[in-house]
Amino acid sequence: MKIIIIGATGTLGAAVASSLEKEHEVIRASRKGNVQVDLSNPASIQAMYQSVQGIDAVISAAGEAKFGSIDSLTNEDFNLGLKSKLMRQINLVRYGRKHLKKGGVITLTTGILAHNPNPQVPMLTMINLGLEGFVESSAQDMPNHMRLNAVCPPMASETAEKMGWGPGGVPATEIAKYYVQSVESNVNGALIGPTHSD
Amino acid sequence: MKIIIIGATGTLGAAVASSLEKEHEVIRASRKGNVQVDLSNPASIQAMYQSVQGIDAVISAAGEAKFGSIDSLTNEDFNLGLKSKLMRQINLVRYGRKHLKKGGVITLTTGILAHNPNPQVPMLTMINLGLEGFVESSAQDMPNHMRLNAVCPPMASETAEKMGWGPGGVPATEIAKYYVQSVESNVNGALIGPTHSD
Fold it and tell me: Cβ neighbours of residue A108 under 8 Å, at least 6 residues apart?
């Protein structure tokens, strides 16, 4: 399969790319590189899809949203979270569904905080749950036998260590298996991860 | 109690106001009227809270988001949905939590489509689920013994009739009982409606 990975420079995206390139052709799309995309610009997403023919799968492991309690978040923080983690991934679906090959699959990334409402992260819970609702709805409407899933990953142990949160989390190579499952299985509309039974 | 209702000119908001004013002081806030608020402007929300002292409860029955399948929704539709139904209600909480009286309660409105993913309404499912996540997180962090709930209303039969969707739905006066429950009970972080057991 020919697979585009967005966010392959991140901890999780890099592990997903490594796992998949054993068996598939993996293309790492980023702001700079052979295949370029600026996710903040819908036209750039469309251009990326037009520049690569015969795409079987797209994986998004990108998107930022700020941690922090409700009083610590500014208008800008909310705008960035909605534009970045939420709308950028939705736009990958909106345009990708017109370009992928028959039976292609798009996999987005939500996060385990969707199911662990916590006063320290109201925006992450909001965005991740919202994305899951989008996936569950839109998966029913994919053209050309395409599929749409979301991985709901736990905290990567590499990230926990980098952020100084001490030991904990799951190694990124283990989390990558959820993405491989989305790509290589035939599930559609699935929320894949340790908190889901899919 | 002194209760501000946003969206009291709508079908649902009007029924909620009628139900509550039997026992409480109800203030209808809108763009034009005695108590004015332009929900699209955070500064206007702050000004509303400052203009009314001693608020015990705020109810939001406002916010638009467009129906329609993923291909029918434009960038503008997504922006409007996120700004209107999602961020305007979140801003009512962000600023309200600094102004309500001790033990005050804020009640937002999501919608039954949060739990009925449907390819005709991906944005409504996304926004409603996101709002529920926000409420479940932020309710744990309300100051001064305040509470935060969301009503997840079914379709009002008045709306179904107006939209030409034929008979069906639940009378707005029946749905209003969920809002009364949020205000008069002591629940916090609850998602109240026919699809929730809260």
Answer: A60, A89, A92, A93, A131, A135, A148, A149, A150, A151
Which H or E run includes A50?
Answer: helix A42-51
Query: Which helix (H) or strand (E) covers residue A180, if one does?
Result: helix A172-184
Any chain A CB within 8 A of the CB of B190?
no
B129–chain A Cβ distance below 8 A for any pair? yes
Nearest CA-CA distance, residue A41 and chain B, Å: 11
- Give me the pLDDT at residue B98, please: 94
CB contact under 8 A, B128 and A133: yes
Of A131, A146, A151, the C-alpha closest to A65 is: A131
Residue A192 bridge partners (DSSP): A151
> How far is Cα B192 from Cα A89, in angstroms, rounded to an integer?
30
Beta-bridge partner residues of A149: A107
Look at residues B142, B52, B59 and name the one whose alpha carbon lies nearest to residue B98: B142
Instruction: Quote the DSSP letter at residue B101.
Output: P
* Residue A174: HSE in the Cβ half-sphere, 13 Å Cα cutoff: 11
- Residue of B136, B144, B146, B198 to mutate for A, most A C-beta atoms under 10 A: B136
Report the DSSP beta bridge partners of residue A4: A27, A58
Please, are residues B63 and B88 in contact by the beta-carbon 8 Å criterion? yes
| pTM of the predicted model over 0.95 | no
Residues of A in contact with B133 (CB under 8 A): 114, 117, 122, 125-130
How much is the average pLDDT of B149-162? 91
pLDDT in 10s for each residue of chain A, 198 residues: 999 999 998 999 999 999 999 999 999 998 887 899 999 899 999 999 999 999 999 999 976 777 899 999 999 999 988 988 899 999 999 999 999 999 999 999 998 888 888 888 899 999 999 999 999 999 999 999 999 999 999 989 998 888 888 788 899 999 999 999 999 999 999 999 987 654
Q: CB under 8 Å to A180, separation ≥6 — which residues?
A: A16, A19, A20
Residue contact A122–B134, C-beta within 8 A: yes
How much is the average pLDDT of B56-69?
87
